[in-house]
């Protein structure tokens, strides 16, 4: 089954649904197509290209849930990129070390590569002369909720990129 990215009327990515469901949203005049694939969908009466990205016509309010902090959620949110050297990283680092009172919360956890993690150990960034190239904060729930492999559909990039936090540090 193929998937379609759904954008709120504000252009914020809010869901990934089956292309058939997205097609029905369009047929019912609830959404418009921003990008389509070259695959064809057929209903009893209509034949159309499968939508790849649709935009809701009306803004819908999304209840804001907090995203539980997990190893995988952090790694995906930062796209397996070390916060200190920007190379591939697959370990988590507590910016304020746990041994020094740091919490296991979104505003204190980043991805680090093994090398940087070992170097940092229980030290503070100020003791190492290191700086975080972005501000730590809680993830945007709706955007973070659909981060993952599905996020990487090439046709979605221009619509999801502005909502991806790790872009911030790439810009530095
Ligand atoms: Zn590193």
UniProtKB/TrEMBL annotation:
Keywords: Endonuclease, Hydrolase, Nuclease. The keyword NADP does not apply. GO terms for molecular function: endonuclease activity. Pfam families: HNH_5. It comes from the Bacteria. InterPro entries: HNH_5, HNH_nuc, NA-targeting_endonuclease. Residues 69-118 form the HNH nuclease domain. The keyword Ribosomal protein does not apply. This is HNH endonuclease. It comes from Frondihabitans sucicola.
